[in-house]
Amino acid sequence: MKIITAPAYRVIRTVSELEQFVDRMSSEKILAVDLEADSMFHFQEKVCLLQIAGNGENVVIDPLAVSDLSPLAPLFSDKEICKVFHGSDYDVRSLYRDFSIEINNLFDTQLASMYVGERETSLGAMVSKRFGIKLDKRYQKKDWSQRPLPEGMIEYAASDVFHLIPLARQLMEELASKERLEWVREECDYLSTVRPVENGCDPLFLRFRGAGRLPRRNLAVLEGLLQYRRDLAIKKDRPLFKVFSNTALLKIATEMADTPKAMESARCLSAKQIRIYGKPLARVVQRANSLPAKDLPVYPRRRRQSVSPKVPERIKAIKAWRDRLAECLELDPALLFNKTLMTAIAVHKPSDIDGLKQVEGIRRWQVEAFGKDILKALSTQP
Question: What is the mean pLDDT of each run of 10 residues along the chain (382 residues)?
């Protein structure tokens, strides 16, 4: 297998170079895009490199050197230029968060590969299978915020966009032949609208898996621990998971470990962590433990919507139809209709196509391709 590590590329470090590049690319029909960020190394993650390829050019833009990336905004918003990403969810959020860049006409090759029936959909797997090329992944988890960047890391970044346009063209042809291209285009349109999650003033435990199962006193402890971890992470400029793991904080909150010795006995933290942070963490637990009952947090519960007892049977009927269809099309069933959408359809119980279009979350392609079949599956239920 051929190993490609260093396609020809050019690094852009000034606004004038960026403006000249954008001017050259403004008449293109398709561009490949990727980025590298530093989420593994800093509290406030940021985009550290932006790679774009098109019309024989392969550039690596350094946002830490280029003072203004706004010249890129028209390129990304242009509906006539297809922007090819692979696994674009994180990239779309990051570009909007750091540069207010919005994307029109996005095409995600990872999503497309799923809809042609590929099982291994990483970029490395796709490039290996389709082009016989092994991508060099040595630098995947390095700190992209370091400067100067080693030449090998820049080469690695440039190689990730090098194959995206030929890969996209292959996938577009295959999707068109299977009459699924519009499915993927619509899904990509939705994907281009994802945005970073803002926590605002909400309790931190709302985004912590397992918090909903804790009693109120333990929940107060967990919130205190999460706030302590966040403040420490900001001070140290480290990602949250590199300060304390979620597992460790949940263990402390569950055990109500209010002394370093209790943390050691419950094996909440390493000996080094207990030696350095045991006392301040214990004080967090003690403060939460002394709160009056009226001040304890309450985990918000969604009141379950009252639904017909026939809904489970409708879901079962839709699922049976969907699974047969997925097997026939050789696709992951969830790509066709996920559990949330099947439940919404069963609850809504549309009697015609217009009613089906009103179901929250349903796509136009799902209605056009399978609307009549869904209604037929529903009609078998009383």
Answer: 67 97 96 95 95 95 96 97 97 97 98 97 94 84 92 91 96 98 98 88 93 96 98 96 97 97 96 97 97 95 75 94 97 97 95 96 97 93 70
Total structural domains within the chain:
3
200: in domain: no
pTM of the model: 0.90
Residue 306: per-residue pLDDT:
67
Neighbours of 373 (CB within 10 A): 13
CATH code of residue 173: 3.30.420.10
pLDDT the model gives residue 271: 96
Q: Check whether residue 179 and residue 48 sit in a common domain.
A: yes
User: Residue 163 domain-assigned?
Assistant: yes
pLDDT, residue 330, reads 96
| Residue indicated by tokens 């390829």 | 53
Same domain assignment for residues 178 and 251: no
Determine the Cα–Cα distance for residues 118 and 331; give it in Å rounded to an integer: 8
The confidence score (pLDDT) of residue 200 equals 75
Clarify whether residues 105 and 33 are in a common domain.
Answer: yes
Taking alpha carbons only, the member of 194, 9, 2 closest to residue 101 is 194
DSSP letters spanning 27-63: T-SEEEEEEEE-TTT-SS--EEEEEEEETTEEEEE-T
Asked if 154 and 286 sit in the same domain, the reply is: no
CB-based contact 89:194 (threshold 8 Å): yes
- Which amino acid makes up residue 181? L
The domain boundary residue, chosen from 191, 210, 244: 191
Eight-class DSSP state of 269: S
Residue 125 forms part of a structural domain: yes
How far, in Å, CA of 288 to CA of 219, rounded?
Answer: 9
Burial, 185: exposed, middle or buried (Cβ in 10 Å; 0-12, 13-18, 19+)?
Answer: middle
Please check whether residue 255 lies inside any domain of the structure.
Answer: yes
